[in-house]
Write a structure and sequence with these properties.
By secondary structure, this protein is an alpha/beta fold. The chain has 14 helices and eleven strands. The protein has two domains: about 120 residues, no CATH class; about 200 residues, Rossmann fold (3-Layer(aba) Sandwich). β9 and β10 form a beta hairpin. α5 packs parallel to α8. The longest helix has 23 residues. The two termini are about 35 Å apart. The N terminus and C terminus are likely disordered.
Length: about 400
């Protein structure tokens, strides 16, 4: 993540007057308030490996990382970039929702975002073509909202109002036959038939229309790319993940729409094959992968990341605390190692130690906190692994 813009490293006079304990308390409170990233809080992404510039490119990306690795911070850093429309969907909200309804929700966010962009004054407000496109986008939204309340599949019985005559064969001359035909016609009923309806099939049929509408909107916006962020993709039921990403990937083909997906690798099913039929996206050809996880032989990179995060947190808290004020000897490197390169784990351990230990943190304090945190971390790893995952305990 880049350093916070517009903030000076200089500390005001009332801040410099704070004692070490008061400054540490402020820092701990600030970190706790921003430990989990959301649209309203969270530390900004510290970009030590150039991932932001990669995500800025006009390409589909899948960001992989463990829980707390910074996936949400990274994809959120796309917000507000000039010349790019970024639309955000948190798929955790739909983890127990059916595939067609997830697609409807995502498409609704997309169409609403495009309509809002066209309505920005003063450039598009009075443009007739933009006004017409906004009406089409809102019409598509209303249609989708109506489908949202319908069953995913149903087979209604339709009456066509036509009578089914069961009279005798043509040319019958007998009175009995005429009487029988008259009775049959009087008892005839309107014909009925079953017409299956499937929301997913409707959305697939509408795909080409949606792509045409997206192209017309981006042309009106002079080719500005649209980045659709799908955060916490791994919360979607694994059985429908390939179908979900497949539909949205097809929506991006030959358009200026690009997917930016954030997920956990071992809980993601992005591609499936049944015979000759393939579904989903293949990394390297349909989308590029971005891996936020570190290995333990990247200790230098891990330390650079954690140093940047602590510097940003201290600036945000308004305190003048550096590594020498917070750590003793190899305490910092040991805490980086104990975190496994996961920023949230690093900050959680730091808060756990600093909340009860006002002196600079050494290796002994890190070991004690790591042991105390071990059972909680195993439970979190089991939850991250999903219902079919397994965590081996040493």
């Amino acid at each position: 993540m880049s350093e916070p813009a517009g903030q000076s490293s200089e500390v005001s006079s009332n801040t410099t007057a704070l004692s070490h304990r008061e400054s540490l308390s402020r820092l701990v409170a600030y970190i706790e308030e921003n430990l989990r990233v959301s649209r309203r809080s969270g530390l900004r992404y510290v970009d030590t490996r150039g991932f932001q510039s990669r995500l800025m490119s006009k390409q589909n990306h899948v960001v992989f990382g463990r829980r707390g690795a910074g996936k949400t911070s990274l994809v959120n850093s796309l917000q507000g970039k000039p010349g790019i429309l970024t639309l955000y969907v948190n798929l955790e909200d739909y983890k127990d929702v059916s595939l067609p309804n997830i697609l409807i929700k995502v498409l609704t966010v997309l169409f609403q975002g495009l309509a809002d962009k066209l309505g920005v004054r003063p450039f598009w407000w009075l443009t007739p073509s933009a006004y017409g496109l906004r009406r089409q986008l809102h019409s598509a939204q209303r249609t989708l909202q109506a489908y949202l309340l319908e069953p995913d599949r149903e087979t209604p019985i339709v009456t066509n109002g036509k009578q089914r005559a069961k009279g005798p064969a043509a040319g019958a001359k007998t009175k009995d036959a005429a009487a029988a035909g008259k009775a049959d016609r009087s008892a005839a009923r309107p014909a009925e038939r079953s017409i299956p309806r499937d929301k997913h099939e409707y959305l697939k049929l509408a795909l080409s229309d949606y792509k045409e509408l997206i192209n017309r909107v981006t042309a009106c916006l002079h080719g500005s790319p649209v980045y659709l962020v799908l955060d916490d993709f791994y919360f979607v039921q694994e059985s429908i993940q390939p179908l979900l990403i497949d539909y949205l990937h097809r929506l991006t083909k030959d358009t200026d729409l690009y997917l930016k997906v954030a997920t956990i690798k071992h809980r993601s099913n992005l591609f499936s094959r049944e015979g000759q039929q393939t579904t989903g996206v293949e990394l390297g050809s349909d989308a590029l992968g971005v891996d936020l996880d570190y290995t333990l032989d990247q200790s230098g990179e891990i330390e650079a990341l954690m140093r940047g995060i602590l510097t940003q947190a201290a600036t945000g808290a308004g305190v003048d605390l550096g590594l020498r004020d917070l750590f003793a000897e190899d305490g910092f490197s040991q805490l980086c190692l104990a975190s496994g390169g996961v920023p949230r784990d690093f900050l959680s351990l730091f808060v756990a130690i600093a909340s009860t230990h006002a002196e600079p943190i050494g290796a002994a304090e890190v070991r004690e906190a790591t042991i105390s945190n071990r059972s909680d971390k195993i439970d979190e790893m089991k939850a991250a692994a999903g219902p079919e995952g397994a965590v081996q305990e040493d």
